[in-house]
């Protein structure tokens, strides 16, 4: 997800997206442990998306 897409979401949508991304990351990591996934760079992009969403949530909490 791009930062511009994240800024347009509400807090509830961000919380939902964060839980979805964390689940996706856990599933990808498990699949990669069992047998190497086709594109291991997916792990990096999902992990960074999790960080972007979490950062936006904490940023809004501080305001």
Automatic annotation (TrEMBL):
What's the short name of a Pfam family annotated to this entry?
A: Ribosomal_L29
Q: Which PROSITE patterns match?
A: RIBOSOMAL_L29
Gene3D superfamilies (UniProt xref): 1.10.287.310
Q: What SUPFAM superfamilies does the database record attribute to this sequence?
A: Ribosomal protein L29 (L29p)
Which UniProt keywords are listed? Ribonucleoprotein, Ribosomal protein
Q: Show the GO cellular component annotation of the record.
A: ribosome
Q: Does the keyword Chaperone apply?
A: no
Q: Which NCBIfam families match?
A: L29
Question: Which family would the database say this protein is a member of?
Answer: Belongs to the universal ribosomal protein uL29 family.
Q: What is this protein called?
A: Large ribosomal subunit protein uL29
Gene name in the database record: rpmC
